[in-house]
Write a structure and sequence with these properties.
This protein is mostly helical and 116 residues long. It is 76% helix and 0% strand.
């Protein structure tokens, strides 16, 4: 998650396209690793009989709400400018990742023994 702000920050800084491409590759790798860690955590922490419901809520809350969260982007760019909106996204991304890492239950999450 800490890699996510690299691309918008590079865009604001006007970095060359090859640097932006490299940043996006790092972001993609970071998101890939995060996705595996998230799925593993959910699958090892949630009892099997509840896993389908939890996954449905997760998808509805994250993937399903993504378009709604994107709606204010256009008006925000019109009101504040592209760079300001991108920088705000960078700050929010860093703060979100930092807050998650600061949460002790997340930092100390351990694998649940096999449930058989």
């Amino acid at each position: 998650m800490l890699a996510y702000p690299l691309y918008p920050l590079g865009t604001v800084l006007g970095l060359p396209i090859w640097v932006l491409a490299a940043a996006q590759a790092v972001v993609g790798a970071g998101i890939g690793i995060w996705g595996v860690m998230w799925a593993t955590s959910v699958q090892t922490q949630v009892p099997g009989e509840m896993l389908n419901r939890i996954h449905a809520c997760e998808v509805a809350g994250s993937v399903g709400m993504y378009p709604i969260g994107s709606v204010p982007a256009g008006p925000a760019v019109g009101a504040f400018g592209t760079d300001q909106v991108l920088l705000t996204g960078v700050v929010v991304s860093v703060l979100t990742a930092t807050a998650l890492l600061a949460a002790r239950p997340i930092r100390t999450l351990r694998r649940v023994p096999d449930r058989r």
